[in-house]
Amino acid sequence: MIELKFVDQRYPASNALLYVNHLAIPKGEVVGILGENGSGKTTLLKAIMGIGELQNGEITIEGRPVTAQYDRIAFITEEGSYLPDLTPEKYGRFLADYFPRFDQARYASLVDAYELPANRKIRTFSKGQKMKLEICAGLAKRADYLIMDEPFVGKDIFSRRDSLNRMIAGLSGEETVLLTTHLIDEIENVIDRAIILHKGLIRADIYVDDMRERGLNLSDVMLEVRNARTSHPFSWPAE
Ligand SMILES: Nc1ncnc2c1ncn2[C@@H]1O[C@H](COP(=O)(O)OP(=O)(O)OP(=O)(O)O)[C@@H](O)[C@H]1O
């Protein structure tokens, strides 16, 4: 389980903040972190990854600090952790040296399935190809926790669907997945739960099955969050 308690993260330079009173994400859940530009999605993922100082609060994974468990977590982001002068093949060897659980055969088969040029330098890849490579590396790490920031960025619609399906097919079902995205239509059938941020606060936290039972879809809930007046904080479902 990932647990956040009284988390307060600020960027003094922009007055932006993220505040989470309490959030628990049980093992095995696939969670979408949604919200408009600047709502704090990346800040939330970075806080979970232990990047940047927390002003207050505590974040743990299975009761232990995140920084003590990096070998069990894959952080997949556009910024990328790849080394641009390596080819995917050499990058795979590098990761195998670095992460004891890294599965090189699985990595090679994912690189192949995504049709990435295994012997071309990563710096020559398009944005979408770089992100695909990050997904290959993340899945091959056999991480228990996959934290993905906009994993479908830079991809055309077919590529996005393909990437999403491949990613889901590549999971064992045991992993806990947190992903940020703006592609709410595409992920509605993939996620178990949606957490919607607005101005650094969680304004809705819903299980997709419950939402559907109420005859709603993600766009409806996102719209309600957006239209809620800040003087009347909106929280869904209502307490
Ligand atoms: N390094 C930084 N220094 C100062 N302010 C920052 C920094 N990084 C982010 N912010 C601010 O924090 C707020 C939240 O940013 P964040 O990147 O978490 O949003 P986001 O929901 O991921 O947005 P997007 O959908 O555009 O990627 C924004 O107001 C942003 O300008």
Automatic annotation (TrEMBL):
Give the superkingdom in one word.
Bacteria
Q: Which SUPFAM superfamilies match?
A: P-loop containing nucleoside triphosphate hydrolases
Q: Per its UniProt record, what Pfam families does this chain match?
A: ABC_tran
Residue intervals of the ABC transporter domain: 2-224
Question: What keywords is this UniProt entry annotated with?
Answer: ATP-binding, Nucleotide-binding, Transport
One example GO MF annotation: ATP binding
Q: What is this protein called?
A: ABC transporter ATP-binding protein
